[in-house]
Each structure stands twice: as C-alpha cells, then as structure tokens.
Amino acid sequence: MNSAADMRAAVFFEGVQASSKFSRFWLLLCLSSVIAASGVVGDSAATVIGAMIVAPLMTPILGIVLATVTGDRRNLLLSWILVVCGAATAVAIGYLVGLLVAAPVVAATNSQVAARVSPSLIDLLAALATGAVGAVALVRKDISDTLPGVAIAISLVPPLSVVGLTLESGSWSEAAGALLLFGANVAAILATGVIILTGYRIGSAARDARTTTGESLVKRGWGRRHRAILSIVVTLLIIGVPLAITSARFTDQELLENSIRQAAQPWAQQNGWEITQLTATNTDAILTLTGEPPIPETSSLEDVLKAQGIDPAQVTVRFVPAYTVQLGGDG
Q1: What pTM did the predictor assign?
Q2: Residue 297 carries which DSSP code?
Q3: Largest CA distance in the chain
Q4: Are 121 and 25 in contact, with CB atoms under 8 Å apart?
Q5: How far apart are CA 104 and CA 108, in angstroms?
C-alpha cells in the first residue's frame, strides 16, 4: 500500500513541487480541452479518447476525496477550486473552438455530442465503478497501472467541451445535459472514493498521526470530514433524480419504438416499402418509409398498431417515394 505521504504527493498541490504541479495541471487541462473540442467537432472517437487520457481533472477530484477522509480543510478547498476553475476553463475553450466552426455542433448531426447530452443511471453506475478503481489505485501500488484505463472509462473533459460547443450553437438543453453528465461523474467518483478510502482506514491513520504529533484539532477535523461526506452523499442523491427521470424517459421511448417497429415492419414489407427511420418521444413517434409509388393505404397499418396496443394518433408516417431511372438507354 502507498503511505499517506505518497497519496498526498500524488493528489495534493503542496510542498516544494507545488508550482510545477500547478503549471502541469493547467498546461494539460488546456491541451486536453483543445483536443477534446476538436475531437467532438470532427466526430472522432479516437481523438476524444486521447483527450481523456491527457486530461488532469482526476487528480484534484481524488484530492477532494483524500482531503475529505483526512479532514484536511486547506487541501479540500484548494482541490475544489481547481475542479471548478478547470471545468470552467474547459467549457470556455469548447466555446471558443465552436466559434471557429460554421455549422452548429449539436446532437442531431454529431454522434459525440449525442452520446453526452442525455445521461442516465447507467452512466452513473459506470462512474461509480470507475471512481472505485481510481481510489483503489491511489491506495495500492500494485494496480496504479490501471489509471490510464480509469481516464478512458470516466468522461470528464469531453462533456465540458460539449457544454461549450452546444452553448455556442445555442442549444441550451443539450449543454445542460452534458453538464449533468460531468456533475454525475464527479459526484460518483467522490462518493465511491470516500467509501473506498474509509474502508482502507485512511482517515483513521491520518487522525492517529495527528494525535501522536500532539495536534489538538482532531475532533474539529472529524466533524468537518463528516459534513463533507454528507454533502457528497446529498449531491449524489440530487444528481440521481434527473438521471433516473432521463432513464425512465429513454426506456419509454425504446419501448414505443420497438412496439411500432414490430407492428410496422411486416406491413411495410407486404406493401414493398422499407422503414428508413423511426424516432420516438415519450408520447409520439415519426415513422419514415421509402419505396416505389403508389403510396399504400394506412388503415391496415392503424389496425396492426392497435393490435400492439399503440394509439395510431401517436404515430406520424412519412412516405418518401423512390423512383428508379435506368441511365444509358436509347431513349
């Protein structure tokens, strides 16, 4: 296991190397933000993954975890400042990159944006597990080589880049969704990190060390630690509510899409048409079909939809006629 001194050196910005740690943090943050924004604009998953590896935000987040369990008020405040200011910087860089792009960068035309504007409970679950790995890697020397995988698994800078890009594009709701994803990831890391470090009795070891050196403020630090833990738990619960609502909404949409597809697919094939797109919200859906004229009558489609328990009034059908023209002929 790593010693308390090793863990402090890994995540706290203090001591003789503090200035170099600060410069490294801001340099990597700015570069990773540019990489992430460029990757999102170019719709490149590989570039975005590269930004995840370079991004340094995990360090102050784990600093919050360690400062919480040890009752270190100074480093707790400093780590929070770094996380908040770093997040604001990443959003600003994303916004500036968006100014260089002519077309709006929104979910409808960009898969990287679409993947980050509608977080669900599954995203929170993944962040909880990733936060646990990061905390264990902080404590144990034998699994520290998993940190690059943690950086890839947890999405920190890319959602912030999406916030900036969608704000510049005027899509406030998508920006809010990406910001929610970032907040959920941070809260999950903090929650599982505190649990893991408490399980390893890191806080107890730190308090014992302070007691042996004659520090008289142990009880006060203990109270601060409990208040910090309580605030993290409350934040996680608050973030969990919109994530649960989003998950329920997407579940309803998936069920509606599947039911409509099961009903409409055989009907479309019988009439020589093909389903090219199906989009659904909680209450209605748009079904797009293409095929050769004439356009088939829809009364039989209404019957099969009713048989699936779907109100036909919920479904709008768009027919896109396809005409075949043979080139190179005599006439």
Answers
A1: 0.75
A2: P
A3: 101
A4: no
A5: 10
